[in-house]
Specification:
By secondary structure, this protein is an alpha/beta fold. It has two domains: about 1-290, no CATH class; about 300-420, no CATH class. It contains 20 helices and seven strands. The strands form two sheets. Strands 4-3-5-7-6 form a five-stranded mixed sheet, sandwiched between helices. The longest helix has 28 residues, at about 230-255. It is globular, with a radius of gyration of 24 Å. The termini are far apart.
Length: about 425
C-alpha cells in the first residue's frame, strides 16, 4: 500500500510537471495562436479600447458580423476583466487569463470533490483529454465557466445555497450554449438524493434568471443567424457532448472508486495518457499542440500598410492556418469583418450561381474580399472562381468584382454585389 501511494505521488508529480511546462509555453506567447483563441483577443481588445476611451461597456460590436455582432455573445466575466487590464498588459492579458482559467478548473474541481484529492485520483483528472484540450484550443470562456460550475458544486456541498446558485448562474452566463445543457442534467440528477428539493429548484431557477440575458445574446448573435439549423444542431451536439466530459470526469471517478477498477489506477492513467495521443489525429488537434511553439503570422501587415487597404470598409477574409490572426489585424487597423471568427459564421462553401453569391455578399455588406491560395487548396470551394468570373476587363465599367491587389499568397477583390448579372 505504501509503495502504491509513493508511485501515485510520483505519477501526480509527473502530471503536474507536464501541465506546468505546457502552461509555461502558453504564457511565453503574447498572442497564443490556436484554434479558438483569437476570438478572445479580438473581443478583449475591442471592449478595452471602447471602455478606456470613455465610451463605457459596449453592447454592440460593429467591427464583426457585418455590423451586427455583440461585444459579449458570451464570456462577459473573463473578457471584461481582461479588458480592464488590457492597457497594462496588452494582448498578453488574454494569454494569462487562458492559463488562469485552466488552473481555475483544476483548483475548483479539487475543492468540489474532496474524495478525489488523493495523488492517483488527481493525476487521473489531470490526464483527462478533454481538460487538456481546453487551454490548447484557447477555450477561455469555457474554462472560466467550468471553473465556476465546479465552484458552485463545492459551495452547494458546503451548504452555502445562495452563493452556489449565484455561482451557477455566473457559470451559465459565461458560456450559456455549453454550460446550460450540462448544468441542467446535473441538477436533475441531484433531485434524486436532495433532501430539500424545493430549495434546489428555487436556487436553480435563480441561476437561470441570472443566465437569461447572456442566453438571449447568444441566440441573437449573427453567428447563429448566419448558420443553418443543421450546422447549429451538429455543432451543439458535438461541442456539448465533448465538453461535458470535463464535468463528468470527477463523477466518473467517484463511481470508479467503488469498483475493482480503483485497484489499477496506474493502468487507467497510462490509458488516459495514450488516449491523449490517439485523439490528436482523430480530433484534428495537431494545430492546437503545435501552437505551443507557434509565432503569429503577421504577413498581412504588408497589405494593411499599403494604399490598397481601406479602413472602415467591410472585408471578407478567407485564410487558413493563421488562427484568425488576419482578422485581428484587420479590425485593429480599422476594418470591419463580414463574419465573426467562427467557421460557421465565416461560411466556407460553394455557391450554385453568381447571383446567389452576390446576394450573400450584399447581405454581408462586403466591400473587399481577401482570398488566399492556401484557402483554395484546403476547402476547394468555387468562391475564387466566381470572383474571377465577375472581374471585368476595365475598371470603368463598375463590375461586380475588381482585382485590386495580388501576391503569390493572396488576391484582394473589391466587390459591388448589386451589379452582378444573372448567370
Amino acid at each position: 500500500m505504501a509503495r502504491t501511494a509513493m508511485v501515485g505521488r510520483v505519477a501526480l508529480g509527473a502530471m503536474a510537471a507536464a501541465w506546468l511546462i505546457g502552461l509555461a509555453f502558453i504564457l511565453s506567447h503574447r498572442i497564443f495562436v490556436t484554434n479558438d483563441s483569437l476570438s478572445n483577443y479580438i473581443h478583449v481588445w475591442y471592449v478595452g479600447d471602447h471602455f478606456w476611451h470613455g465610451h463605457g461597456i459596449p453592447l454592440h460590436m460593429p467591427v464583426l458580423g457585418h455590423g451586427e455582432a455583440y461585444a459579449f455573445p458570451y464570456g462577459f466575466i473573463p473578457w471584461f476583466s481582461a479588458a480592464l487590464l488590457h492597457p497594462l498588459f496588452g494582448d498578453w492579458i488574454v494569454t494569462l487569463w487562458l492559463v488562469v482559467g485552466a488552473l481555475g478548473v483544476i483548483a475548483a474541481q479539487w475543492c468540489a470533490f474532496p474524495e478525489l484529492r488523493g495523488a492517483w485520483w488527481t493525476a487521473l483528472l489531470l490526464a483527462n483529454p478533454m481538460l487538456v484540450e481546453g487551454p490548447l484550443l484557447g477555450q477561455l470562456p469555457f474554462l472560466w465557466a467550468i471553473a465556476m460550475l465546479f465552484a458552485a458544486i463545492a459551495l452547494w456541498r458546503r451548504e452555502r445555497w445562495l452563493a452556489a446558485a449565484v455561482m451557477l448562474g455566473l457559470a451559465q452566463a459565461t458560456h450559456p450554449a455549453v454550460v446550460l445543457p450540462i448544468a441542467g442534467p446535473i441538477v436533475l440528477a441531484r433531485l434524486i438524493w436532495e433532501p430539500n428539493r424545493p430549495r434546489l429548484l428555487a436556487c436553480y431557477a435563480l441561476s437561470l434568471a441570472i443566465a437569461a440575458p447572456a442566453a438571449w445574446l447568444v441566440a441573437a448573435s449573427p453567428s447563429v443567424g448566419d448558420s443553418s439549423t443543421r450546422t447549429l444542431v451538429t455543432n451543439f451536439v458535438d461541442t456539448v457532448s465533448l465538453r461535458a466530459i470535463v464535468v463528468a470526469a470527477p463523477f466518473i471517478g467517484l463511481v470508479v472508486q467503488r469498483t475493482p477498477l480503483a485497484r489499477i489506477p496506474a493502468i487507467i492513467l497510462v490509458g488516459l495518457i495514450a488516449l491523449n495521443v490517439i485523439l490528436v489525429p482523430i480530433r484534428k488537434d495537431r494545430y492546437a499542440w503545435t501552437a505551443l511553439t507557434r509565432t503569429a503570422d503577421v504577413s498581412l501587415e504588408t497589405f494593411i500598410q499599403s494604399d490598397d487597404f481601406h479602413p472602415g470598409a467591410t472585408y471578407r477574409i478567407l485564410r487558413v492556418r493563421d488562427g484568425k490572426v488576419g482578422m485581428y489585424q484587420l479590425v485593429r487597423a480599422g476594418a470591419r469583418l463580414d463574419s465573426e471568427p467562427f467557421p460557421e459564421s465565416i461560411d466556407r462553401r460553394s455557391w450554385p450561381s453568381r447571383v446567389e453569391y452576390a446576394e450573400f455578399l450584399r447581405k454581408r455588406k462586403v466591400d473587399y474580399i481577401i482570398i488566399y491560395a492556401a484557402y483554395n487548396a484546403r476547402y476547394r470551394t468555387n468562391e475564387h472562381a466566381l470572383l474571377e468570373d465577375s472581374v471585368a476587363g476595365t475598371r470603368s465599367i463598375s463590375p461586380c468584382a475588381q482585382l485590386v491587389a495580388a501576391t503569390a499568397e493572396y488576391a484582394v477583390y473589391s466587390v459591388a454585389p448589386g451589379t452582378c448579372g444573372p448567370q
